[in-house]
Amino acid sequence: MLKITNLHAAIEGKEILKGIDLMVKPGEVHAIMGPNGSGKSTLAAVLAGRETFEVTQGEVTFQGIDVLVLSPEDRARMGLFLGFQYPVEIPGVSMVNFMKTAINEQRKFRKLEPLSASDFLKLMREKKEIVEITSNLTNRSVNEGFSGGEKKKNEIFQMAMLEPKLAILDETDSGLDIDALRIVANGVNKLRNRENATIVITHYQRLLDHIVPDYVHVLYKGKIIKSSGKELALELEEKGYDWLKELVD
Amino acid sequence: MSAEQDQIIDQVTSGEYKYGFYTDIELETIPKGLNEDIVRMISLKKNEPEFLLELRLKAFRHWQTLKMPEWAHLTLPKINYQDIIYYAAPKQQAKYTNLDEVDPELLETFAKLGIPLDEQKHLAGVAVDAVMDSISVKTTFRESLAELGIIFCSFSEAVREQPDLIKKYMGSVVPYTDNYFAALNSAVFSDGSFCYIPKGVRCPMELSTYFRINAANTGQFERTLIVADDDSYVSYLEGCTAPQRDENQLHAAIVEIIAMDNAEVKYSTVQNWYPGDKNGKGGIYNFVTKRGICKGDNSKISWTQIETGSAITWKYPSCILKGDNTIGEFYSVAVTNNHQQADTGTKMIHIGKNSRSTIISKGISAGKSQNSYRGLVKVLKNADNVRNYTQCDSLLLGDQCGAHTFPYLEVDNDTAIIEHEATTSKIGEDQIFYCNQRGIDTESAIGLIINGYAKEVLNKLPMEFAVEAQKLLQISLEGSVG
């Protein structure tokens, strides 16, 4: 589904990603871990097409298509979803209006008719249950005045609405209390199936107690320095990152 | 960041003004220039009673003593008033009573603008007075409104049929001595709309005037007069467009509203005059005096304006809150793009006790445009317990435009509570990216964000217009409209 080959990316001339290789197949959950400043969020942003980063070398194919030449919106329409570490507030734009615009743009790309208002509201009700979201959240403006936990839940809600092929969740667990963490993780688990894939970017092991990954990768100084099964996360929790850093430095 | 911003701005400024077409229609015009003979000629053309001609001449003589005001935050070009045609009308016999008599070209023009003059086809619940250049072409639903005692007709007809009302109210809110453009308008005005809502009547439909400048080298000078008698209600809409031309054209209108005891008037404008091209060539100079008086106790006047057009806008819809417990409201979204300039705002003059006013102004500037809010809140000595709330927001797209705020306060009564809030913000690249990531392209994202920003004001518009206005805001920033 996703194939990253020797990906290098820089911001303002400074190289952040220094040759990433990663292969994600349908049905898989990958966890990307690593210390602060290792390039985790940069990787997520580059995959989503954020133009502040410049790809200097390498290839990324998504469903067999070179996505590096595509606009962020076209990548999204192909089914690539980014759950933001810091979801952005858009004052005055209701969640309903925002989601409806997004879904219909994506449907247009797939040559489908726009959803009728009643079908849309029905879909919204269904998906809200998955994320255990209360109804008034969707009546408010996008993320405006939301608490940290509400913002993250809202990301998972949007993911549920858009049904992406590949979801990249960037530090979705940061700032969540244990109940919110459980709700977010449950949402992700309920949305998992054999057709889609998830990349979970996280700092801590605790999210991986709830979302069990098939693979764990450690990113350090812009490179994946270790890949293994889910047991790697436990090892990291216990020993920290230093023993791995030493292998590289 | 700045390169991206530029790109975004570039993208959203590459559209076209939709209403820039010209209708080739036989015109009746008078010679260029302005002097007493021209003023007399206009009056004669309109078969006016003596009192009006005299008023015109007084206004003209007064205007000659005045200088163009220069206090606005605008770069005003010299206007050659002798180079303007002050009267141009599509050739016709009299006012059409039957649609079959109307030149099909004219009908098509208004149909193109989305204003069908055929009552059957028209949006349910909106009566229209269509004004092209100097005259009113057709007023719909006149008869059904007349059954309720509502008078809704062109200004010229009102002069002929209701001279007493005109004599009593015309110039009572905006006298010809008010300002330079008011004097000019009072001398050469040609047509416009008149509306009278009798005591105790709630007007069952929206009344609207649609102004279209068509002829070249012509100025449009119309007047609107709305009188809402005791316990009445009316919602009034105004729309305007003009062809795309390289020369600038002058529009100097007057709108007067009178609200008697317990009356309520809601006046909404969607102003979409041609704004000029991307390089600032052409466009309408829009110098308009709009003022309402809450004459009776407990009356209310509410202005809502969506200003997207014109090369230069100079306009301050105001309320004189004379009665006790009166309410004045001003809700405005002003968009400027490319080289457009807008200096707009309001005046709330509190005379009555317990009078209240609300001002919500949302400026959006893009391109190389300049957008200013100018507002006066004045509380007179005897006006006890006045309240005013002002909120003034500016949104900037790109870094070549300007937003300015000029609030004036003159408070002579200690019991007044005046609040003022102001913010300036930019559309964030992160907001756009967030939308992009959900599959929404940059243009739609900007549209979404702008409409969200302007929502408080858009919500005040009547339903049919709110949808139009939302689209217009988006087009304005996509295109050279702005």
Q: Can you summarize this structure?
A:
The complex is a heterodimer of chains A (249) and B (482). By secondary structure, chain A is α/β, with parallel strands linked by helices.
- Oligomeric state, counting identical vs distinct chains: heterodimer
Low-confidence stretches of chain A: none
Task: Name the chain pair whose interface involves the most residues.
Answer: A-B, 31 and 25 residues
Helix content of chain B: 10-25%
Give the DSSP E fraction of chain B (strand runs of 2 or more residues).
25-35%
- Number of contiguous helices of chain B: 12
How is the topology of this model organized?
The complex is a heterodimer of chains A (249) and B (482).
Chain A: E1 2-11, E2 14-24, E3 29-33, H1 40-48, E4 54-62, E5 65-66, H2 72-77, E6 80-83, E7 90-94, H3 95-109, H4 117-130, H5 135-139, E8 141-142, H6 148-162, E9 166-170, H7 178-191, E10 197-201, H8 206-210, E11 215-220, E12 223-228, H9 231-239, H10 242-248
Parallel strand pairs in A: 3-10, 3-11, 6-9, 9-10
Antiparallel strand pairs in A: 1-2, 1-4, 4-5, 7-8, 11-12
Chain B: H1 2-12, E1 27-29, H2 36-45, H3 50-64, E2 88-90, H4 104-112, E3 126-132, E4 135-139, H5 142-146, E5 151-154, H6 155-161, H7 163-169, H8 180-188, E6 191-197, E7 206-212, E8 222-228, E9 233-241, E10 248-251, E11 254-259, E12 264-271, E13 283-294, E14 300-307, E15 312-315, E16 318-321, E17 327-336, E18 341-350, E19 356-365, E20 370-379, E21 387-396, E22 402-411, E23 417-426, H9 429-437, H10 442-453, H11 455-458, H12 463-478
Parallel strand pairs in B: 3-7, 6-8, 7-9, 8-11, 9-12, 10-13, 11-13, 12-14, 13-15, 13-16, 14-17, 15-18, 16-18, 17-19, 18-20, 19-21, 20-22, 21-23
Antiparallel strand pairs in B: 1-2, 3-4, 5-6
Helix pairs in contact in B: 2-3, 3-8, 6-7, 9-10, 10-12
